[in-house]
Hints:
Elements: H1 11-18, H2 22-47, H3 52-60, H4 64-92, H5 98-115, H6 118-131, H7 136-163, H8 177-200, E1 205-208, E2 211-214, H9 218-242, H10 249-266, H11 274-283, H12 289-333
Antiparallel strand pairs: 1-2
Amino acid sequence: xxxxxxxxxxxxxxxxxxxxxxxxxxxxxxxxxxxxxxxxxxxxxxxxxxxxxxxxxxxxxxxxxxxxxxxxxxxxxxxxxxxxxxxxxxxxxxxxxxxxxxxxxxxxxxxxxxxxxxxxxxxxxxxxxxxxxxxxxxxxxxxxxxxxxxxxxxxxxxxxxxxxxxxxxxxxxxxxxxxxxxxxxxxxxxxxxxxxxxxxxxxxxxxxxxxxxxxxxxxxxxxxxxxxxxxxxxxxxxxxxxxxxxxxxxxxxxxxxxxxxxxxxxxxxxxxxxxxxxxxxxxxxxxxxxxxxxxxxxxxxxxxxxxxxxxxxxxxxxxxxxxxxxxxxxxxxx
Length: 334
């Protein structure tokens, strides 16, 4: 399980894509194009009669304490995500310190959220970790564990939220409640299957495309689930804080989880428009569109844009340090 990957997360995926038939390649391209066109159109239809004065008023009415709490929650989420790679330190047994790991992971996560997994999740991870002396197999195992940690936490939370029927779908969507609950039970079954494999599987190692993948212990798998679930929970908490007081946290969490899958399918950087479309569609019967859009704008600024600006600065510092280290090594070799 620790070697699983999704289409935006593992270098082996690109190789596998090259072996697909032409019809499948074109089908995927057309599917992606459909989402690029459909999401903006649907979002426009949802907000075309929006009272932008209401949005402005909602943004201006946020208290300083609310925004401060939002920044604390966002920082907690980023710190939790950095824990993914810290956890991978024990899994891979590499020698980098936590002080070296955290800046790299922070930069990768911020770029990942804003510019796609290919940029942050893969390219920057390989570049920055290789400059710190890690080899490709080790970086691949770090990436694999991080992916599984993220989606294991997702499946665990989504399983409980969907199976518990915490999402109040609008009228006309009620027919989907049973299906959503069934999906929740399936996700929980997958999670517990992973835990059982980590505890009882006799075979612990697989080699895929010359990459050695090791099944973690049950203790480590439980830590993965806790970290992954905590990160998703904090992301939803930030949106919840920015919504009016009558918001129901489990419902906000469930809709965030649904929108995240839609964003992965759409392949739109930062899920731009997808998050807004899903939230407005599923919550407009509870809140005004202006309140929803204001909360989501605040969420994007606090969780996406400001961390990205900080990550650019941290990245430049890391690059400068790497150059200085390389020059010292070259001078020592001479």
